[in-house]
Amino acid sequence: MGVTDKTVINGNEGTLQAVINGRVEELGSVKEFEALITYIKKEIRAIGQRMVGHKVTGLSGDGDMSVYYNSHIFRRVADMYRRTGVFPEISLVCTNLDPATVATTGHQTVVLRGVKPDSVILAKLAEDDELEEDFSFTFEDYEFLDTFRG
Question: How many CB atoms lie within 10 A of CB 94?
Answer without folding.
Answer: 20
